[in-house]
Specification:
single chain, 70 residues, 2 helices
Length: 70
């Protein structure tokens, strides 16, 4: 899945690259918190859902906090 999507009512674009960076930072934090886990296995379907969820949450955050909304 390769696309970029802007937040509703804002002109801020979220690229697939930015989504990937957010995911990487999230998993890095998780790995730091649980050093006893030595693999990174996750169901591919869940991984895809997670990517969509990150994009949805960031879009909503941008919308809710955009100066254009206030």
């Amino acid at each position: 899945m390769s696309y970029s999507q802007s937040s509703p009512a804002t002109c801020i674009e979220i690229s697939q690259h930015q989504i990937q960076l957010l995911e990487d930072k999230f998993w890095s934090s998780v790995a730091e918190m649980f050093p006893q886990i030595t693999t990174g296995d996750l169901d591919p379907f869940v991984t895809a859902q997670f990517s969509v969820a990150i994009q949805t949450v960031v879009n909503e955050w941008l919308y809710a906090n955009s100066p254009e909304q206030h």
